[in-house]
Amino acid sequence: MALLLGAIIWASVREQRWISTYLADEIEQGTLSQDDCTVVCSYLERLAVRAHALFSGDLRRWQHLGRYHRLATELAFNKRRMIHFPGEKDTQARVVHLRQRVREMAQGLLADK
């Protein structure tokens, strides 16, 4: 049991580092704000932001935040994949597409506030 718990913690920390590392330059590019990047890089922050929307009764925002966080995380993982598997042809296009979707969702979330 302790080994399983250790593996879960190790995987969570590793994923958090990947997300932080691969989204850092997205702030400079205007894809994510610093605040959004901070939230996306922390599971507990994502949970808190979505819980706030849910308990405020804003189910639409709760759903949009979930999609936004998933897309931003997927962007980070695809950027990592692009570096570690440079021979993959579609990864660069996927990164460009995800970056655009994250920007669009961020703008939509700002408009909904």
Keywords:
single chain, mainly alpha, 113 residues
Helix content: over 70%
Averaged pLDDT: 92
Morphology call:
flat
Number of strand segments: 0
Number of helices: 5
What would you report as the Rg, rounded to the nearest angstrom? 15 Å
Biggest pleated-sheet summary: none
How much strand?
under 5%
The tally of domains stands at 1
- Low-pLDDT runs of 5+ residues are none
In whole angstroms, how far apart are the ends? 43 Å
The structural class is mainly alpha
Outline the structure in words.
By secondary structure, the chain is an all-alpha fold. The chain has one domain. It contains five helices and no strands. The protein has helices at 2-28, 34-40, 43-55, 59-84, 91-112. The protein is flat, with a radius of gyration of 15 Å. The N and C termini lie far apart (43 Å). 23% of the residues are buried. The model has no long low-confidence stretch (mean pLDDT 92).
Question: Short description, anyone?
Answer:
The chain is mainly alpha-helical. The chain has helices at 2-28, 34-40, 43-55, 59-84, 91-112. It is flat.
How are the secondary structure elements laid out?
Elements: H1 2-28, H2 34-40, H3 43-55, H4 59-84, H5 91-112
